[in-house]
Design goal:
About 20% of the residues lie in helices and about 30% in strands. It contains 10 helices and 20 strands. It starts with 7 loop residues before the first helix and ends with a helix.
């Protein structure tokens, strides 16, 4: 297993601490792209981080975005990126505060995520090394007029690409007993990394990507949709430290499953089961086997319904989004806590009819009810502000608890799912009510 690339903050030679340049003479040591996996626009280049020889102290001053020009060369096309904010920092990270920055040896140049050339990947990650150039075109001064950074004729190109959270996932693969290889990425909680001999047990979250992430790059299952990143981000790990296991189906695309989808392909599913079983066995003193969770979207949702029916006594809970499945197997999983969601106007996996002759979420929830499960249902717009969206989820959860229902189903009103009606997961993994609920479940 290889480890993910360390961030630029850890791989570069540190600038002298406490020293500042005189007369604005402060050379750039290195330049890194900072990317982000976003809920709705996938993987984007959101900033440049310039490391300087000396500490930058603006003494309360502000750097105008017009002081820097940025160009991106992607796919043979060169075009400008829009600079939105510039501030000094001690790390190669975007500062989301309204008044960002602090004196440090780095300068963060934030870029508009809505630029047409902001994407960091297509089907595969784009070649972004040295793809960006940045040039300072105006001098920067303190409010008192003292020079801090001088403009110059030379542009810097990025040395590396930093993707917070994603860079913390190790890369690996398992070749199963039938000889089929399944690549995966793995996030390990900080407590485990600090002390691998610990006997502390952590939950395991297994993420199943959608059909668009079938590839050989062992990357886009993390970056094409904000699913695995949700469970590994620092604020979530502080609340619910867990292992996060994210396999990727390889090319050429296996399509031997009973309904032509990938996670139900016999070879893929056998390898997935062996991967999970082997991981749990190899980490037997550190995985809480009563808290194994399945989350997935689109064909990953299909994989959840199939896998739960075949392994009904393994998983503590599941989050299937925009999935489809087999109504005849729902009687096997009535005991498993589940929070499903789907847009009513989904054109890719229809809400009722599903895909490849197998029904969608609405029909599966009806089948669960017919088999004896209580299903708590709610419907609202998928473009509500986060606070209101979570308030609706909280109300649905209260209703579920009042009726002793462990199966919840959220439907999203037609015309309200951003970007594309199929992308009903746009808010699913940003919804702290749902994620908190998941981690409360235990077998």
């Amino acid at each position: 297993m290889s480890t993910a690339t360390a961030s630029a903050a850890d791989t570069t030679t540190a600038a002298p601490q406490g020293r500042q340049a005189t007369s604005g003479n402060n050379p750039v040591l290195r330049t890194d792209l900072v990317t982000r996996v976003t809920p709705r626009n996938n993987w984007l280049v959101t900033a440049l981080a310039l490391q300087y020889s000396y500490r930058i102290d603006l003494r309360g001053g502000v750097i105008p975005p017009s002081a820097f020009q940025v160009e991106a060369t992607v796919g043979g096309q060169t075009a400008a990126r829009t600079v939105t904010r510039v501030y000094s920092s001690t790390t190669a990270e975007v500062d989301d505060r309204s008044r960002p920055g602090r004196p440090g040896d780095r300068l963060i140049i934030e870029l508009d995520p809505n630029d047409s050339n902001a994407r960091a990947s297509g089907t595969d990650p784009l070649p972004l090394e040295r793809a960006y150039s940045v040039r300072q075109v105006a001098d920067v001064h303190t409010p008192e007029g003292e020079p801090v950074l001088k403009a110059g004729p030379f542009a810097s190109r990025n040395d590396d690409v930093v993707t917070p959270v994603v860079d913390d996932f190790a890369a690996g693969s398992l070749t199963d007993s039938a000889g089929f290889e399944l690549a995966f990425r793995l996030y390990r909680p900080e407590g485990f990394l600090r002390n691998p001999q610990t006997r502390k047990r952590y939950p395991l979250v297994v993420t199943l990507h959608g059909g668009g992430e079938v590839a050989d790059n062992n990357m886009t299952q993390l970056t094409s949709n904000r699913i695995a990143v949700t469970f590994a981000k620092p604020e979530r790990q502080r609340r619910d430290p867990a292992f996060v296991l994210s396999p990727q189906i390889p090319l050429p695309r296996p399509m031997d499953g009973p309904d032509g989808t990938d996670w139900t392909d016999a070879k893929v599913q056998a390898a997935l089961i062996e991967l999970i079983d082997t991981f749990v066995s190899e980490h037997s003193q550190n995985v809480d086997t009563a808290r194994l969770y399945l989350v997935g979207l689109s064909s990953g949702g299909r994989g959840i319904y199939s896998l739960l029916a075949k392994r009904p006594d393994v998983f503590a809970a599941a989050l299937p989004t925009a999935g489809w499945g087999d109504s005849a197997t729902m009687d096997r999983i009535t005991h498993i806590p589940m929070w499903a969601d789907h847009s009513v106007d989904d054109p890719v996996v229809p809400y009722r009819e599903g895909r490849f002759g197998k029904p969608g979420t609405w029909t599966l929830m009806n089948a669960l009810e017919s088999a004896g499960a209580r299903v708590a249902r709610g419907q609202w717009a998928n473009d509500l502000p986060k606070a209101e969206f979570e308030a609706r989820s909280r109300a649905l959860l209260r209703r579920a608890r009042a009726t002793r229902s462990h199966v919840l189903f959220t439907s999203y009103t037609a015309g309200t799912t951003p970007v594309n009606p199929h992308l009903s997961w746009a808010q699913t993994y940003e919804n702290d009510v749902v994620i908190d609920w998941l981690f409360e479940q235990s077998r």
